[in-house]
Design brief:
The protein is mainly α and about 170 residues long. Helix content is about 55%, strand content about 10%. A two-stranded antiparallel sheet has the order 1-2. α2 crosses α4 and α3 crosses α4.
Length: about 170
């Protein structure tokens, strides 16, 4: 596998993940991806600011601000004034997950994965194939955590790693 193939696989997996998530009945339309990227960053870096999230994720600051506002409205994050600079807000995951967070976390990828593995004519995939792919995804999820991606990003940018040493 080369970098292009890995990139395309990542896009496919993102699409399957989006299809697996329960749809919002009503609310503000917008990018699920940016919400997930922001929330994922907040889990790794609680007590952070919009600007810091934008720097780490590469998302525009306006997109991070919108995502944080939506996450706060949904009860997924809490914010408080930054004691060092009252103009900024510190953001952290909510102490008690909202009903929406619980719903999303409880959703499985089974149906979306089965649909993605269906034949070109729509025939259901063999159960053994679905199980094999599910096990492979479980292994990848355990081995390739968001903190690994953050370390790789640090190496690419030349920033100090989270351990305080340079890569």
């Amino acid at each position: 596998m080369n970098g292009v193939e890995l990139f395309l696989l990542g896009r496919t997996l993102m699409k399957i993940g989006e299809q697996a998530m329960p749809q919002v009945e009503a609310g503000t339309p917008g990018s699920t991806r940016s919400l997930l990227v922001v929330l994922g960053d907040l889990v790794s870096h609680p007590g952070t600011t919009v600007g810091e999230i934008a720097t780490r994720t590469g998302l525009p600051q306006s997109q991070v601000s919108t995502a944080v506002a939506r996450l706060e409205q949904a009860g997924s994050v809490d914010t408080e004034p930054d004691p060092a600079d009252r103009r900024r807000r510190l953001i952290r995951p909510a102490a008690q997950p909202s009903a929406r967070v619980a719903e999303v976390r409880a959703a499985t990828v089974d149906d979306a994965l089965t649909a993605a593995l269906a034949g070109p004519d729509g025939t259901a995939p063999d159960a053994a194939v679905v199980q094999e792919v599910t096990q492979a995804l479980g292994l990848l999820a355990r081995r390739l955590t968001p903190s690994i991606a953050a370390r790789a990003r640090d190496v690419d940018t030349g920033r100090p790693s989270r351990t305080g040493t340079t890569p």
